Structure formats: structure tokens, C-alpha cells
Amino acid sequence: MRIGLLIYGSLDLLTGGFLYDRYLVRHLQARGHTVEIIALPWRTYGRCLLHNVSPGLLTRVRTAACDLLLQDELTHPSLFLLNQRLKRRIDIPLVTIVHQVLCRQPRPDWQNAFYRAIETRYLDSVDAYIVNSQSTRATLEHLLDMKQRPWIVASPGGDRLGTLSSIHSISTRAVQPGPLRLLFIGNLLPHKGLHTLLEVLSQAPQEIWRLTVVGDLTMNQPYARSIRARIQQAGLSAQVHLTGPLDGEVLAEHLRHSHLFVMPFSQEGFGIVYLEAMAYGLPAIGSSSGAAKDLIQSGHNGFLIDPQHPSALLVHLQRLHHDRECLNQMGYAALKTFQAQPTWAESMEAVHQFIRRLAIPPN
Asked: For the structural domain made of 168-340, what CATH number should be given?
């Protein structure tokens, strides 16, 4: 098959959604399919709406001569009207890949009402859905009737960075004396909630924690500057280390040597990093709002924090610092959670079979 994939920017961006798209492209290519990337410039939401009246984009899609067109749901402002024009000109399935639903993110109601009007119209314009988590699927079902169209939940894998070479290292790490080594992996963007995490940690005894933050510092430079200023003003320079973006073996090394993965104030559509952390036996602390609850069983392999009660994080950190056997048992439970999840190859093959059935329906 010849498959199109419509995205913003570049597949090389270090975000969970683009990581998912990269894995899917590689898997489809390995299965012998041709994948044509149709990349749109990344602009403001308002300017992206203008793509709907762009004859150039319509021509690009038509000349790609695809058997099926995948669309990253992130591009919905560019396509919520254009898809109807596409359907009148080309008879191929339009399939959206939904990583997260924009209009269900924490923000003022009037803003979400505006986004919802556009996003639901887009979601109603496609023929099928590839969804990254059960939580995201439930969110979609609140917005539209999915019973009339095919869909698949294909969760990301957590095996990209490998896993522990020995499960005994969980116990060895847990009983090491000193502060809890906390790891946050996420680009420095407001919705990731690092500012709230720092505010809560500033109230904890400094002897019980150290925090390493892995993520791009340039995607929102004013926010990154505010984070640096917050660290300095709170006297946390010795407590918090900002590494910038890391990947591969360097990132895996941080996972091996950390005690806990903490991203408790980010509403994730799936949260690949939670699962990658669990691959190294790290209990994960995430938000009760979003898809973290699909992986985290609070009190078993980590904790879920209610965004309305952020100080609950302090109680859990105090407990795990003083009760290293609890930390140890949660680490083993986290590893078992990872082991029970599908690999990237398994999930992407499920997507492959799904889109084959869409593009080549049975006689």
C-alpha cells in the first residue's frame, strides 16, 4: 500500500506523539508499505485554520496518490473543513491517530468550548480512529458516537529504552542510603506541570529528595526561564538538575539510577514515559486526571495525585523515603506492569492489520 501521514513539523521532535508516529512509520515500511509524509508548517492555532482553504494542501494530498491517509489528530485545526473537500475528490479512508484530545485539557471553559467546536467537527470528518489509550477512547466517546466507525486502541510500548538486566537491582537501589532520586522526563512546557512540582517539593525536607529534569529547554523559552528563576529563588539549585533533552543509553542510565518517576501534574493522553520508567522498576507518580490511571494503581506500583490536592505528593515522598521496603515492593510491581504491556512491535502490528482491513476491505 501507499500510505500518507499528515503531521505538523517533523517526525524528529522529541514528544510522545511524534515517537508513536515514528514507530508506526518504521513498522509500516518494514512491512513493505510506502509511507508519504505530508508535513505542514507548525503555526499558531488560528493560522492553522487557514489551511482549510488552501488549494495547495488539497493538491498535495491528491497528488500523493495514497490508498489510505493517516492524520495525526494534532493537525485537526488544519483539516476540520478540508476533510470534507478531500472526500469529494478522493475515495480513500481518512484515519486519525489520537494521542490526546485538546478540548479536554485543563484551561478556562470558554477556551475549551472554542476548541471543542472545531475538534469535534474534525473527529466527525474521519472514517476511523487509532487511539493510544482506553482513557483517550473514553474521552472521544464523550464527544461523538464512535459506534458507527471502526476504531482500535493501540497503546505505545515501553521497551524503547530497554529494561533492567537484573530484577535484583531494584532491591539494591531501593535500600541505598540518602535522598530519594526523583526523575521527571518532559519538555519544559506549562502543561507538563513542572512549576507545580517544584512548588510542592520546596515544602519537603531537602534531605529527602533530589530531582533530575530531562527535557527540552527551548520549546518555550519564557517558561524555561521562569523555571530557572523559581529554582534559584526557592534555594533549590543544589536539589534540582536540568539536563536538557536526553535519549538512548544516556536516558536509560538515568532510569537505572533513579528511585522514582515523578510527573504528577501533567494530564497525559497516555504517558509513554511512565511505562518506560516502569521498565526500569521505577514506581511512577502521575495525575489522577488523564491516562496515567491506565497504568498506575495508586499504592501498588506508584501513586495518583489529585490536581486539586497537590500536597498529597509530600505524604507519599515522606513514606517512601523512610520505608524503603515499600519502595522496593512498588518497584517490583512497576516492572510487572511494564512486562504485562504490549511491546512497540506488537502494538504497531495491530495498527498495521487494522489499516490493511480499512484499505483492502474483504469482498
From this structure: 3.40.50.2000
Grid cell, residue 228, equals 530557572
Q: How many CB atoms lie within 10 A of CB 259?
A: 25
pLDDT at 62: 87
| Distance, CA of 280 to chain centre | 18
pLDDT tens-digit profile of 208-260? 999 999 999 999 999 999 999 999 999 999 999 999 999 999 999 999 999 99
Burial of 298 (0-12, 13-18, 19+ CB in 10 A): middle
In this prediction, residue 312 carries a pLDDT of: 95
Distances (CA, A) of 33 to 1, 36, 178: 5, 10, 52
Residues whose CB falls within 8 Å of the CB of residue 327, separated by 6 or more in sequence, listed in order: 174, 180, 259, 260, 283, 320
Confidence (pLDDT) at 363: 54
| Better pLDDT: 363 or 172 | 172
The mean predicted confidence, pLDDT, of the chain is 94
- Candidate from 269-273, 332-336, 358-362 with smallest mean pLDDT: 358-362
Query: Do 2-156+343-359 and 168-340 fold alike per CATH?
Result: yes
The cell numbers describing 193, all together, are 506541570
CB 310, CB 264: distance < 8 Å: yes
Residues in the chain: 363
187: exposed, middle or buried (C-beta count within 10 Å: 0-12, 13-18, 19+)? buried
Q: Are 183 and 240 in contact (CB under 8 A)?
A: no
Q: Are 302 and 288 in contact (CB under 8 A)?
A: no
Domain range list for the chain:
2-156+343-359, 168-340
Tell me the pLDDT tens digit for each residue of 90-113.
Answer: 999 999 999 988 888 878 899 999
Residue 175, pLDDT > 90, answer: yes
Domain topology for 2-156+343-359: Rossmann fold (3.40.50)
What lies within 8 Å, CB to CB, of 239 at 6+ separation is 201, 206, 209, 210, 211
